[in-house]
Specification:
Helix content is about 45%, strand content about 5%. It has ten helices and four strands; from the N terminus they run E-H-E-H-E-E-H-H-H-H-H-H-H-H. The chain has helices at about 50-65, 90-95, 115-125, 135-165, 170-195, 205-220, 235-245, 250-255, 275-280, 280-285; strands at about 45, 75, 100-105, 110-115. Strand 1, helix 1 (about 50-65) and strand 2 form a beta-alpha-beta unit. Helix 4 packs antiparallel against helix 5 (about 170-195), helix 4 (about 135-165) packs parallel to helix 6 and helix 6 packs across helix 7. The radius of gyration is 20 Å and the shape is globular.
Length: about 290
């Protein structure tokens, strides 16, 4: 790796390189005018089936499975590789131009909610504290682990994932630095889950919904093609937890929503009705 001396003042004078270079920029705001579509349900989700997007679709499907009919939702696909998150309507829903974004039309005026952790808490509170303990130690644990995920995952995705899988060149220092941190995070979870069923205790909560799409997939060797590199088989308690959550029918539905890769039967690009899981997955939409 060649030495690099930072200039006195950084300027944006060339593309950064790597898989997402075409959408990276040092300024905020919209790049084009495009209003967001609005479906028939009060809850409108604008997202993509990445780990951050899966958190919210799993929560919505879990709410519906628990009998909260008001959690019916429309899920609209936002293709971030094509810059759709920079449309004027999406920027109005989330000034940070990141998926997922939720707009709740059930009140006197639309309420936007952005950042996946904030959406999970908002939905829990909207539906009577669902999947979040009402108080005491379990509530404190659930919120602590929810925010642990929010603070830790940038080292996994933007750190390890970027330099291991997406950067234009492989560099030993950043890969080693972030591999070390990701393995430490897995060890944190593995030690915790050796002593309890779920992150907050014996009850499944929004902390699990937030953490599973990232660290469950990582422990199962499904992120960045890095399973062998990180020896994820060593984290047996995380794998046990990941497998248990993956068996939940609502989780299986939620992980299909806004997904645009993988087996066609695992992709439901947009979701507007519960019947869409049977009628509109890509194996049914695609030509023979």
């Amino acid at each position: 790796m060649s030495d690099y001396t930072p200039p006195q003042v950084w300027t944006w004078n060339k593309a950064s390189g790597g898989q997402f270079a075409s959408i990276n920029r040092p300024v905020a705001g919209p790049t084009h005018d495009k209003e967001l579509p609005v479906g028939r349900h009060p809850l409108q989700l604008y997202s993509l089936g990445t780990p951050n997007g899966i958190k919210v679709t799993v929560m919505l499907e879990e709410l519906l499975a628990a009998g909260h009919a008001g959690a019916e939702y429309d899920a609209w696909l936002i293709r971030i590789n094509e810059g759709e998150q920079f449309g004027s309507g999406f920027v109005e829903a989330n000034p940070n131009s990141k998926i997922p974004a939720l707009v709740d039309h059930s009140g006197p005026r639309p309420q936007r909610v952005f950042e996946s952790g904030a959406i999970l808490i908002y939905l829990s509170e909207k539906f009577g504290g669902a999947f979040l303990p009402a108080g005491g130690a379990e509530r404190a644990e659930a919120l602590s682990w929810l925010f642990w995920q929010m603070g830790s995952t940038p080292f996994l995705g933007g750190g390890f994932g970027h330099f291991y899988a997406y950067a234009p060149t492989k560099q030993e220092y950043p890969i080693d630095r972030y591999a070390m941190e990701v393995k430490r995070q897995l060890d944190v979870l593995d030690r915790l889950l050796a002593e309890r069923r779920y992150l907050a205790g014996e009850s499944y909560s929004i902390a699990d919904m937030a953490t599973w799409p990232w660290y469950g997939a990582l422990a199962k060797g499904q992120l960045y093609g890095a399973g062998e590199f990180l020896s994820v088989h060593e984290y047996t308690h995380v794998i046990r937890w990941a497998d248990e959550i993956a068996k939940r029918p609502a989780v299986q539905r939620g992980r299909k929503v806004n997904r645009t890769w993988g087996e066609p039967s695992s992709q439901l690009h947009e979701r507007h009705d519960a019947s869409d899981f049977d009628l509109r997955t890509q194996d049914k939409a695609a030509p023979p």
